[in-house]
Amino acid sequence: MERTRGGVFIALEGVEGAGKSTQVRLLEEWLRGRGLDPVVTREPGGTAVGEEARRILLESEHVTAETELLLMLAARSALVTEVIRPALESGRVVVTDRFDLSTMAYQAYGRGLPAAEVEAMNRFATGGLTPDVTVLLDVDPEVGSRRRGGAGRDRIERAGVAFHGRVAGAYRLLAEGQDRIARVDGSDGPAAVHERVLALLSARFPETFPGGAG
Ligand code: T5A
């Protein structure tokens, strides 16, 4: 299902500790500084159903790969219907911390669920809505893990080095040759990465991001 052309839909993606939440916050500040009123959200979460699903997904020990996928998609379906689609239709910029690429990286490649089915189920959950651009913050999983330091680790974060290695490899693979996925070097400090993100967005959406970081 195509949406009525309106706002710009931006997703930030990457491994744990890649700096997504930091870049989402910097982007929001930048947009507000230009008088815009972006909708900022995260996945899983962002709605009553989504936050409940997040709690089960990250805290319950008894979640199979299939249940994990279904809960992620239930949360996404609610978020698209209740938050993202209405915001885009009213012309607002939507910035989300994770979206569909996470599901491909974590549930298909990380957990080993069949990619074609995961893709089809995601399409059902979103009604075919995809981000206008997905910014992949590219950092090695070890760097992300170091950045997170001793922060409390949830069930998915505890899934092990091999799992997170597959996720990181999947992100790079999935981004190859895809215009809708822009890989940005996320290994420098937050301000340098923010400038890279803005330069990219400015090139793609000059009306919303005139002049990039300047
Ligand atoms: N998931 C999600 C799936 O399995 N499938 C799905 O479909 C979806 C949508 C979500 C979990 O759910 C999984 C993936 C996840 O495991 P979460 O708590 O939202 O859980 O986890 P993350 O999104 O990974 O959040 P993190 O906080 O771990 O990582 P971020 O947001 O990438 O990193 P951020 O910005 O919080 O930064 C982490 C630390 O590094 C510093 C920050 O100050 C912070 O201390 N930092 C930097 N340091 C140096 N240089 C930079 N450029 C830095 N940027 C940030």
Please give a structural write-up.
This protein is 52% helix and 11% strand. A 5-stranded parallel beta sheet has the order 2-3-1-4-5, sandwiched between helices. It is globular. The protein has 214 residues and is α/β, with parallel strands linked by helices. The relative contact order is 0.19. The mean pLDDT is 93. It is built from 8 helices and 5 strands. It binds P1-(5'-adenosyl)P5-(5'-thymidyl)pentaphosphate (T5A). P1-(5'-adenosyl)P5-(5'-thymidyl)pentaphosphate binds at residues 14, 16-22, 42-44, 72, 98, 102-103, 106-107, 147-148, 156-157, 186, 189-190, 193. P1-(5'-adenosyl)P5-(5'-thymidyl)pentaphosphate (T5A) binds at residues 14, 16-22, 42-44, 72, 98, 102-103, 106-107, 147-148, 156-157, 186, 189-190, 193.
Give a quick set of tags describing it:
214 residues; alpha/beta; Rossmann fold; 5-stranded parallel sheet; 5 strands; binds P1-(5'-adenosyl)P5-(5'-thymidyl)pentaphosphate
List the helices and strands and how they pair.
Blueprint: E1 9-13, H1 20-33, E2 39-42, H2 48-59, H3 65-89, E3 94-97, H4 100-110, H5 115-126, E4 133-138, H6 141-148, H7 161-175, E5 181-185, H8 190-204
Parallel strand pairs: 1-3, 1-4, 2-3, 4-5
Bound molecules: P1-(5'-adenosyl)P5-(5'-thymidyl)pentaphosphate.
The site of P1-(5'-adenosyl)P5-(5'-thymidyl)pentaphosphate has 25 residues, from helix 1, helix 4, helix 6 and helix 8.
